[in-house]
Amino acid sequence: MWFILILLHMGLQLPLSLSCPSRCVCFPNGDVTCTGAITEIPHLKANQTFRLKLNNTLITILNPQSFQALVFLQRVQISHSPLATIHPDAFHSASQLRSVVLSSNLISALPPRVFSSLWNLEQLHMDGNQLMSLHADTFKELGSLTDLNIKKNQIANLDARIFQDVTSLNHLNLCENLLQKIPQMLFHNLKQLKSLILYSNQLKTIEEGSFDHLHNLLTLMLHKNQIQEIPPRLFWHMPSLLTLTLSGNQLRYIPRETFYYLPNLTKLTLYKNPLISLPDQLVGHMPRLQELYLYNTNLTTVPWNLFANMTGLRALNLHFNEKLTSLPKDLFCCLPKLQKLSLKTNILQDLHQDQFSALTNLKTLLLSGNKLRSLSAKIFQNLHSLTELGLSNNKLNNLPGDIFVHVTALRSVTLGSNPWNCTCSILDIAEWIIENRNVVTDLHDVLCHEPYYLLNKQLVVLTSDSLKCGVTTTGDLASCFTGTITTSNVATNTLSPTTILSSHLTTTASTTEEVHIDVTKSSVFYDTVVLVNGPDIVHNNRHQRWVYLWTVPTTGLYSGFLMALHVVLIVTSVLLIIANAYALYRLHKALWETGMTLTRNQTIITKRLLSFNGKL
């Protein structure tokens, strides 16, 4: 006994099996939990029952004055049961109740004023039932109610007067219903409301002035609806708002100055809307905004000052916009606290060299999945805190060798799935990759795309020898010409590494170019010139240490005539070959027939001679 008293003094809960109904557990602090084959409210000692939980029972109905005997009962919970019917007097004489939770049952209708006797009720949860409508007097006289949860039902309409008596309400959850419209006066008496949850309904429009009296609202969730437009100044009267979600709707346009007078907003979501454009004057002073989600839209660009008033922004998600092709140069000018910027999976083609220069505290920059063709060597020069960088799956074929010199904190970078052009000019960035192979997290996917003989070769194993950078190429020869050669990607591996070339270029008045290459230090010049992916038709001859190249552009009347003539010659050659083969066949056949005739004649003559000799 002394041991039990000591445990009770220490605040430990021990179940009291004595005088506690079967399938129930009773605790000394007044908590009673019942489950299983229970069909009605169990008989309990009134002076020992303060909180009653009935979960997974067989209760289907609450009878009149079901809780009358439990005069000290303050909280009751009946959930995950087949409860479908509540008698109008079920809570009669239970005015002491402060919390009623009837979640996840089968309730499809509530009697009018069924809770009107619960003057002290602070919490009412009816979520997860089958309610299709609510009477205008359902919450009549519940002046003390602060928490109302009716989510996950099938309510399509609400009477404009239904919340007029719950003036103390702090939290209202109406999400995951079938609401199509909000009456303009529905929330006008809820001046103490702090949280309004309306997501996952079927709302298409919200009337102007619907939120004008919610001056203390902190959270407004409108995502996953079908809202096509919002009236101007809809959110202007909620200066305390911290979280606003508008994602997953059908917004194509947002009115000017929609997000003005929201100085305390910390989170704003606009993603998964078919937004076509945003106005220049959209966002007011938001120094406390930390998270902005603007992805899965139809935006092609955004106003240059979109983020100018968001000086406290820490995470910006501007990704998965399949039509976003460009960004204004000064878009990120005023985000000194930004730590994460996601621009992945857009279709950005170019970025200004000063695009990120103001983001001195940026730690994560995701640019993967765009169409970037090149980057300036200075684009990351101010990102001294950058630790994670994504550049994979773009159109990059080269990068400046010193592009990461100032990014001293870099710990992870992705470069794979880019069409890297593995010529000698890529050696600088390849050397950086070799020296920082632990930083490049997709090292095995950083592969050469061209030239063809290096296709799928890893950049990390490239050397000047493997690229034949000690061998003079026609690309190198072009730099010695006094004129220009239009042929690109032309290379030769036939010259000696010690060959020193001087050349002269003479251009005729026509489209044909003649190039003279003089080998001054070596008399060796092989007959083979290898042309890789050359855009022109090239012919060459060698004569006394001079090489003559004639190039014909692939476009133009002259090149078209030559190509047509080339095709005609090929066709003529094929026809001549066929005709020659046919003539040979006919000749062979004629000779064979002649031979057979001669053989027959010889046989006849022989027989006649033998016959003549026999007669003699």
Q: Could you give the topology of this structure?
A:
Blueprint: H1 2-9, E1 24-26, E2 31-35, E3 51-55, E4 61-62, E5 75-79, E6 85-86, E7 99-101, E8 123-125, E9 147-149, E10 171-173, E11 195-197, E12 219-221, E13 243-245, E14 267-269, E15 291-293, E16 315-317, E17 340-342, E18 364-366, E19 388-390, E20 412-414, E21 420-421, H2 427-435, E22 448-450, H3 474-480, E23 501-507, E24 513-519, E25 537-543, E26 546-552, H4 557-615
Parallel strand pairs: 2-3, 3-5, 4-6, 5-7, 7-8, 8-9, 9-10, 10-11, 11-12, 12-13, 13-14, 14-15, 15-16, 16-17, 17-18, 18-19, 19-20, 21-22
Antiparallel strand pairs: 1-2, 23-24, 24-26, 25-26
Task: Describe the structure in your own words.
It is a single chain. The chain has about 625 residues and is an alpha/beta fold. Among the domains are: about 475-550, no CATH class; about 555-585. About 15% of the residues lie in helices and about 15% in strands. It contains four helices and 26 strands. The protein has an 18-stranded mixed sheet, with no helix packed on it. A hairpin with a 5-residue loop joins strand 23 (about 500-505) and strand 24. The termini are far apart.
